[in-house]
Model the fold of this input.
Amino acid sequence: MASSQRLSILPKGLVRPRALASRIQPNASRRKSGPYGYTQAKALVFSKPGEPQDALSLHAHSISPSIPSSALLARTLAAPINPADINTVQGTYGAKPPFTSLIGTAEPSAVPGNEGVFEVLAAPGGSDIHKGDWVIPARSQFGTWRTHAVAEADDFIKIDKQGLNPLQVATVSVNPCSAYRMLRSYGPSAGLKDGLGMRPLEVGSGAWFIQNGANSGVGRAAIQFGRLWGLRSINVIRERDSAEETDALKREMYDLGADVVVTDAQLHSREWRDQLAEITRQGREKIGLGLNCVGGKNATALARSLSEGGTLVSYGGMAKQPVALPVGLLIFKDIRFVGFWLSKWNEKDVQGRKHMINDILDLIRSGKFKDVPVEEVPWHWETEEATLKDAVQAGLGGFRKGKGVFVFGDT
Ligand SMILES: NC(=O)c1ccc[n+]([C@@H]2O[C@H](COP(=O)([O-])OP(=O)(O)OC[C@H]3O[C@@H](n4cnc5c(N)ncnc54)[C@H](OP(=O)(O)O)[C@@H]3O)[C@@H](O)[C@H]2O)c1
Done:
């Protein structure tokens, strides 16, 4: 693991872990403002991977007012519970967070949470970040399930908060960015790169893409970018308990700009082949891209729906089943199977990431992009550990009305 990752909650190069740890005292008080200007803080932590219910605990600590001169102190406003965060706690994610004793845990521990928005309480002099500004983590695995963070100014990206609410900013950097990157990188294009290392889209080309998990955060974003960029989408959702609920979800997808919405069952039905032919005008219109976050049979059906030479991009495995690749699709249809991981893209293209985030926030401000439905999980000083853990545990359950997001009170 890179040292920058290990120290991402620390002012880099300025404070040795022990030095900062000595300024952070565990369980000092349950008051939010402690004596002598100490900030009382709490974080969800885990020291060993496991199911969130078992692995997570709520750790109270206090932060000294004398933080390093180049560091900033921020309080968390909102932090989502994404599937990848839960997989991180379970130990099944592709990257491990830093395990340290910096906040005074008995054992080296990690704070989960990849994204979130913070309000700056104290900023270093000479920085362009000031008290009251909103910032988001500049790196993956920052650890956002905490009431407060102390870190170097360049561990954050400053956000122009004008016209935005904390939920919109807290949820911008993972799901919408993944959809943006995948459509830009694998969507129909002239094969050239723009200045940001991304392929320019043939805007208005009307080309099709197909995706499963269409009602996920990523899926909803892909529908909307597709519509904005002139791509057409076929969207696969899972059936709900009743036809009315399924129709209501389909309507939500159409309202976002979906062109076609079908259920899992339709995708696997005998009629799908004919329906697809009708959608693509007997194959005259091509489906060049598939986005898969489910896996198993669903991914295979998606791949079968692609036109010759199409690409299936796998970016998630919600069904926890392997993606089976029929040999015929490889040989006779020349289908490409690739994987996508946003964290890698972010590392490679820091400027491109900032541009993308600002671009998406502009779309939100102008009402052209709707944020994902959320189930707010209030996190106040008195909130019980069990309440927070339950919210995390529920995050991987299917058929949810909205994404769980911790919304912090005046901690
Ligand atoms: N590779 C990357 O860089 C990257 C970046 C972002 C996200 N992701 C991945 O993308 C996926 C979606 O993330 P998200 O945050 O957008 O999700 P989300 O908003 O939390 O929504 C979860 C989605 O998964 C579906 N789902 C849940 N359990 C399922 C199951 N057993 N079988 C089939 N579908 C199931 C849900 O459908 P129902 O409503 O029908 O339950 C819903 O569409 C996750 O796997 C996540 O790890 C990957």
